TrEMBL record:
Official protein name in the record: TIGR03085 family metal-binding protein
Mycothiol-dependent maleylpyruvate isomerase metal-binding domain residues: 5-42
Signal peptide: none
Transmembrane segments: none
InterPro entries per record: CHP03085, DinB/YfiT-like, Maleyloyr_isom, MDMPI_metal-binding
Domain of life according to the entry: Bacteria
Amino acid sequence: MNHARAERAALSDLFARLGPDAPTLCEGWTTFDLAAHLVLRESRPDALGGILLAPLAGYTASVQESMKARHGYDGLVELVRSGPGGIYRLIPGLDQVVNTTEYFIHHEDVRRAQRVWEPRELPADLEQTFWKQVRAGNRVFLRKSPARVVMHRIGGGVAIGGPGDAPQVEVTGRAGELLLFCFGRQAHARVDVSGDEQAVARLMDAPLGV
């Protein structure tokens, strides 16, 4: 089982255990909403635009609500579990390339929204994959950062992003935690952050991610 499928299976188990009304780190979304989002992105390409483009968000939201009404929570969880669907099933390797990150982040969105949680010990190859993503994408992830961000990976490696003329902030953690930080989960990533207090405060509230 590859990492994308492992994260999908673990998240599906967590969905089933928590039920439809549990909180997530996705603002305004319960587990029911998140399950619908995951099914939508694999089965309704016509509704994908609203995930990134605000003018199309209304249509995407309406499709997501219709999927909730049609399948119910248990049905959506089983669709998540039985995936990947759509293009991710048709193109060899695409599931692993794209969905490893997608499902890791959303798995943590559910885990870390609960009252008690601890970071997981990730396999070394998965940590290496996430570090490659941080290094390759940090300029995009940090394009809205108000600070120059120097990311230090525990175990070795540095990635730099954000405006060069802004105050510098140092962020240190494991690769998976740095990835979560870069995807806008700053407050829930287990990292050490240091630098000018005002710059740190602005960075922690910044809309990071794609």
